Amino acid sequence: MPDSMSFQISGQHSHTHKHLPTIILDPTRLQIYSYILQVGFLTPVANLIGVVRGPKYNGSFLHDKIKSLTHDVTIADTVTNIIVPTFDVKYLQPIIFSTYEAKNEPLKNAHLSDICISTSAAPTYFPAHFFKTSGPSSESREFHLIDGGVAANNPTMVAMSMISKEVLRQNLDFKLGKPADYKHYLVISIGTGTAKMAEKYTAPACAKWGVLRWLYDGGFTPLIDIFTHASADMVDIHASVLFQSLCCEKSYLRIQDDSLVGHTSSVDIATKENMEALIGIGKDLLKKPVARVNIDTGVYETVDGEGTNEEALARFAKKLSDERRLRKNNHNSY
Question: Which catalytic residues are annotated (predicted)?
Fold first, then answer.
């Protein structure tokens, strides 16, 4: 499951700043997560055996719940234009699904259920997902997919690249011009949180590890931890430096909590208490000052003069509302 939810919002429809998102704990949706907890006490040895033998969860409940929520809706039918990264293990290639692309390429117009199951298929936690799509001329395409976080744990640059692709296609939803003219972009990247910097691994310890220890050590998965953190951090650094170099750093807003501890930093501890704790952390995050990553230390540092995350979101919403109103007036004038 990707580290962050990235929104590419170059003039797309949006609510005004009076309608910032409200986070609601939905008991029905909570079933998806609480199922993950139905495992008993396991010793470290049993955990290791489980990791070697197969994924931690078979995913059947999660898959059924996703299908019951999405029905037969395909990605081309979504109300909002979305972009979802996955990774094809057969061809060792990232596969990016998007609403725009699905409308032009029938073989990429997969059911939302298949896409959601695929992008949630985190290695060691859930099994890979296989499905086929069909085109209008009886052609078909196979997909052998796992979690998109393998390729894009922070999908910010994926979103930006897909928008550039639509500009090249002269999509009327976007201003015509150079596809890499990022001065016209507004990007919100919302992270799913990372553990507080705890110096988890050291070079002297890692130097003694064989294959198994790199895969599993003391309840942790070092190799996966390292790859996922490196992938997400590199994207954040790249995006941050890119917007700073164009003198429009305020157009890139990264909201991330890098101080999670205990159960709140886990991947699959989804008790009601932990879910409520995460919601509380999210609400508190809105009140915290805008921060940007220090490219030398990887630590988020407060940016003077830009207010709180909530205030920054309100500014973005106002810009989008004004843009939508302008486009509507221009359309009516024709």
Answer: 4, 147
